[in-house]
Amino acid sequence: MRSGKERGSVQRERRRAAAMASLGAAVFVAGCGRAPSFNIMGSFFPSWLVCLTIGTIVAGLVYALLTRLGKQRLIQWGILTYPSLAVLVALLLWLLFFN
């Protein structure tokens, strides 16, 4: 059996844990206040998806341009370079227009 002092300590710890859980939930839910999105033909798309699509298109255009100019052989790690370029463009667009 626990003494009164031990029960009070356990209850305080439970209250503290409940308060921390509530605070954590409030912090995570606060990010849902504004969701930037685009209305494309009546359907809403998140802006990060639009930025990623544009980044992928830019990376594809750079690949096509380098191939046409005969400089594609200079890129040794294309499997890493072009996805990294797409992510770079997507993040830059996000920072420029949505932050």
UniProtKB/TrEMBL annotation:
Its main location: membrane. It is found in: Membrane. It is a multi-pass membrane protein. GO terms for cellular component: membrane. The chain crosses the membrane at residues 44-65, 77-97. Pfam families: Ytca. This is Uncharacterized protein YtcA. Belongs to the YtcA family. It comes from Silvibacterium dinghuense. Keywords: Cell membrane, Lipoprotein, Membrane, Palmitate, Signal, Transmembrane, Transmembrane helix. InterPro entries: YtcA.
